[in-house]
Amino acid sequence: MKPIQRFTAVVLFAWLSVANAKDPGKYNVLFIISDDLTSTALSCYGNKVCKTPNIDKIAAKGVRFTRAYCQGTYCGPSRASFMTGYYPHAIKMLGYKTPRPFIGDRATWSQHFMNAGYHSMRVSKIYHMGVPGGIEDGGDGADDPASWNEKYNSQGPEWRAPGDGETLENNPDGKKPAVGGNTFVVVEADGADLVHSDGKTAKKAAELIRKHKDKRFWLGVGFVRPHVPFVAPRRDYPDFKPYNKMVLPPKIPGDWDDLTPAGINYKTSKNMKMDIRRQKKAVGGYYASVAFMDRMVGQVMDALHEAGIADETIVIFTSDHGYHLGEHDFWAKVSLLDESSQVPLIISVPGKKPAVCSSLVELLDLYPTIAGLCGLEIPKRLQGKDISPMLDNPRHTVRDAAFSTSAGRRGLLLRTDDWAYIQYGEDASRGIELYDIRKDPKQYTNLALNPDYEQTVNDFMKRMSAKMASQRNNDLGLDYSAPAPKKKKTTSRKKK
Ligand SMILES: [Ca+2]
């Protein structure tokens, strides 16, 4: 071979190898998920106090969904649902374990890509991990090993991070130090980003992007903030201090009077014994955690651009569920009101125009939608819908109601354009709520017991039982009959 021919052959071979390496699908997938993040805390969703320039940048290039709903208003079920492609009740995932025993050898979202030749990776929390406990330990949590070629955990000190910490919840006399567990604690932390789990997650994700830029990959990046404890480097706090300048949602006298006990969230200003000072600090601490997480999102996005593969990568930003920041004097998740059941969702596909889409979508739609966009087969068994037409036409719709479920309250939500219908218990025996979203977008007035709305409630009740039946009508072959009641223990439990 003449030198020029040899050169051409080498170049051609190199080009073919790269082309082959990237053959499995049209795009890489960068799936970034925050934990316990309400869309209302993001500046691209209208927050004027909490600035999230890096997430806003993804939104400016992508399609921002204003009515995306999670399928479970707490970590375990929500994550198991969108990763497997089934509703939580279909895979009996109402807790915090791995969904694998319920799906057999069916491929999860990332595994489906792996089977098509993608390199599948996760950094930190994609399936459920306990926060803060599981992050302090640095373990795998309720992970599904079959979903990944590579996986990394990001251990962090969480509430033990050195700095100024205060426990806000159940600490009226201020005597408790910063504590662990699922507790409202704010820590203004000393030191740099890399002290924390999310700092390590961003660094590892950037490293993986650089390392695997020449092949097709599915990379899940799970940030744990703003999940409690609200821990962030000191540099993320100045915008929110002094805390007393934080504005709380309006307090409506008698707001809980039309709710059954199941409708009153598990964390409230009252049962957490948080006075106004503590409530305002909770908002400021949450925002600082959001600001920190946003900076870490920026580091991952910088790595994607620097690697030169932004134009061949679909970027998704979302959260596992929303969060109350004092609306109705409710805090945290689990509630099925919009603040907790609605999630931020941005999908950015190279070459598509930026848009805002207010069609009802579910996180369950991600698996089929992204598979289709990448040119992979969409498994027929999946319970979500392909929402990709919305990326070209934001007025496109695929459903007239979004579904979500909550924990021990046995809550079920159907959210339509006009109504939010919530029932507690599959027979609705624990309570019903009905909100006229057009007239009452903040969901203050429960119309369920108003005789004028009896027909609407009855219609929704029928729709709900049809919805539950359709979720259980699937290929999984599971037994959905109610479990036999547990036998009463004959011996009394010994006190410790
Ligand atoms: Ca969560």
In short:
The protein has 496 residues and is α/β, with parallel strands linked by helices. It has helices spanning 3-21, 53-61, 75-84, 100-103, 109-115, 133-137, 197-211, 276-306, 338-341, 366-373, 389-392, 454-472, and strands at residues 28-34, 63-69, 119-124, 150-152, 163-167, 185-189, 217-222, 230-233, 313-319, 324-325, 331-332, 342-348, 355-357, 361-362, 402-405, 411-415, 419-424, 432-436.
List keywords for this structure.
single chain; 496 residues; alpha/beta; Alkaline Phosphatase, subunit A; Arylsulfatase, C-terminal domain; 2 domains; nine-stranded mixed β-sheet; globular; binds calcium ion
- Helix percent reads 25-40%
As for the CATH topology of the largest domain, it is Alkaline Phosphatase, subunit A
What general form does the structure show? globular
Strand content: 15-25%
Total strands: the figure is 18
Number of helical elements: 12
Average predicted confidence as pLDDT:
94
Which structural class best describes the helix and strand composition?
alpha/beta
Name the CATH superfamily classification of the largest domain: Alkaline Phosphatase, subunit A
Task: Give the ligands present.
Answer: calcium ion
Residue stretches low in confidence (pLDDT < 50, at least 5 long) are: 489-496
What characterizes the major β-sheet? Answer: 9 strands, mixed
CATH class division of the largest domain? Alpha Beta
Distance between the termini: 84 Å
List the helices and strands in order: HEHEHHHEHEEEHEEHEEEHEEEHHEEEEH
Number of domains: 2
Radius of gyration: 23 Å
Using the 3D structure, state the CATH architecture of the largest domain.
3-Layer(aba) Sandwich
